[in-house]
Amino acid sequence: MREPADRPNVILINCDDLGYGDVGCYGSDINATPALDRLAAEGMRFTDFYMAAPVCSPSRAGMLTGCYPRRIGMDAYGPDRLPVLFPGDAWGLHPDEITVARLLRDQGYATKLVGKWHVGDQPEFLPTRHGFDAFYGLPYSNDMGMQIQWPGYPPLPLIENETILQEQPDQAGLTERYVEQSVRFIREHRDEPFFLYLAHMYVHVPLFVPEHFLKSARNGPYGAAVECIDWAMAVLAHELSRLGLDRNTIVIFTSDNGSNGRDGGSNAPLRGRKATTWEGGQRLPCIVRWPGMVPAGTTCSELTTAMDFLPTLVNLADGQVPDDRILDGRDVGALWRGESGARSPHEAFFYYRRDELEAVRDAEWKLHLTTGELYNLRQDIGETTDVAAANPEVVARLQGLADGAREDLGDHRTGAEGANCRPCGVVADPRPLTEYREDHPYIVAMYDTGGIPRPRAEQVASPGPSFRRPVIGPRRGD
Ligand SMILES: [Ca+2]
User: Fold this and answer.
1) Of 146, 157, 386, 396, which shows the fewest CB atoms inside 10 Å?
2) One domain, residues 184 and 285
3) Spacing, Cα 235 to ligand 1 middle (Å)
4) CATH number reported for the structural domain that contains residue 274 in this entry
5) Left, alpha or beta for 299 (phi > 0: left; psi -120 to 50: alpha)?
6) Could you tell me if 19 and 259 are in contact, meaning their C-beta atoms sit under 8 angstroms apart?
7) Same domain for 16 and 39?
8) 97 shares its domain with 237
9) CA of 277 to the centre of ligand 1 (A)
10) Residues 356 and 263 grouped into a single domain
């Protein structure tokens, strides 16, 4: 048995669109999340934790690389500056970028992604090219398949490594398959360090959830999906305990961006929603459990980010954080260990929406750059009372920090290029991974809306023949 601090295993659980107020230990009184509440009781709960973007692709790219998405060209895609990647897009995480998975693999870790990727679907960009030994899951969002509203979309591919296993899988059964894959991986690698990245499909719409969760949940399909996420946590926690791996394993639970604010989701008590730079867009639940190393039942209100995972985990694995490039994440191990006097290593956090800098915060204050509104996040977590007029020196200081970010990272709104940005990856001949074929025996021919409100008229595809590449159809599913 390894000592707990000798290259600890890492299980990183990332949900899709799960909001700040969707989990019991973050205040939900409608979703039952006993396993996640227990995780928090046995670990540390972060109140001021941020993803690097308020939508999927840039958020995930930032977490995996420890960089603001804009630094690595993953902030806005193509000439239309799209907020996320779509099937068959030419863009993705540059092959020269270094992910936390690659760095942990260099330290002898077995690495696997189970679930959603969404930082490039062309072969050059797949998880297997970015440090993961193995991949089982979806290359992008679960609404980016054939649906009643957009029948011509490429069928949603379920991928194993680089092979398409199935098209249009039954989404109601997919999380159970993810859990099986995860358990199998943990068992196979119980005697060596492993990094499991479990990127749930839930609670991104459409919501297809097993019947028994629908029966027990009090919050409709959304609540059932949250409770299925909680069930997955319970299974993994049980497996770690059964194998005697608790003290060797860091479990991190978080979400890629805030709730869309519909369908039963909640960012309470935060203002705003997914795809915005209000707190509800990017401030997320984050729980870290590592028995004996992270003090149990604690709360950390220091400013931390998902970009910090890479340097923190790589240092814990005795690895080498790249020194040939700028990273934005910082080692927050002292905070995780609950060391007295430990403080956030971040002077500020920059809220980018696509390629535009919209807000900046420090330990206490947040300035919205487009409107000039200033909020005291310590006293006013819901961003209700603009106090800019009474605090001109705070406004000036935060504007100075924003100016520095513009020089460094750029800002499309002001025309600043940014001196230290790297390009995203581009392929010359992108192709969707799948194509609808009339003779294929799809189990699920088309996903319907699953009880979710129908999209607005402008989001609806015009029905037509099967797509050919590249997909230029309606853009949706951020
Ligand atoms: Ca998302």
Assistant:
1) 396
2) yes
3) 23
4) 3.40.720.10
5) beta
6) yes
7) yes
8) yes
9) 14
10) no
How far apart are the CA of 22 and the centre of ligand 1, in A? 14
Distance 478 CA to ligand 1 centre (A): 7
3-state secondary structure of 240: helix
User: Residue 128 to residues 64, 105, 108: CA-CA distances in angstroms?
Assistant: 14, 12, 16
Alpha-carbon distance 196 to 9, whole Å? 8
414 within a domain of the structure (yes/no): no
Residue 22 domain-assigned (yes or no): yes
Verify whether residue 118 is a known catalytic residue.
yes
Residues 386 and 359 in one domain: yes
The pairing of beta strand 44-46 with beta strand 298-300:
parallel
Domain count, the chain: 2
Q: How many CB atoms lie within 10 A of CB 452?
A: 18
Q: Among residues 56, 286, 300, 421, which one is catalytic?
A: 56
Residue 416: DSSP 8-state: B
The DSSP symbol for 463 reads P
Pick from 333, 255, 330: nearest CA to 294: 333
Question: Is 56 annotated as catalytic?
Answer: yes
Type of residue found at 184: R
Q: What's the one-letter identity of residue 446?
A: M
Q: Which of 94, 118, 200, 204 is catalytic?
A: 118
Determine contact, residues 50/279, Cβ cutoff 8 Å. Answer: no
> Is the Cβ–Cβ distance between 252 and 294 less than 8 Å?
no
Taking the centre of ligand 1 as the mean of its atom positions, its distance from the CA of residue 55, in whole angstroms, is: 5
- Amino acid identity, residue 199? A
pTM above threshold 0.90:
yes
Q: Is residue 449 part of a domain?
A: no
Task: Give me ligand 1 centre to Cα 389, in Å.
Answer: 35
Q: Which of 382, 409, 436 is the last residue of a domain?
A: 409
pLDDT in tens, the chain (478 residues): 678 889 999 999 999 999 999 999 999 999 999 999 999 999 999 999 999 999 999 999 999 999 999 999 999 999 999 999 999 999 999 999 999 999 999 999 999 999 999 999 999 999 999 999 999 999 999 999 998 877 888 999 999 999 999 999 999 999 999 999 999 999 999 999 999 999 999 999 999 999 999 999 999 999 999 999 999 999 999 999 999 999 999 999 999 999 999 889 999 999 999 999 999 999 999 999 999 999 999 999 999 999 999 999 999 999 999 999 999 999 999 999 999 999 999 999 999 999 999 999 999 999 999 999 999 999 999 999 999 999 999 999 999 999 999 999 999 999 999 999 999 999 999 999 999 998 999 888 888 765 444 444 443 343 333 333 333 344 444 4
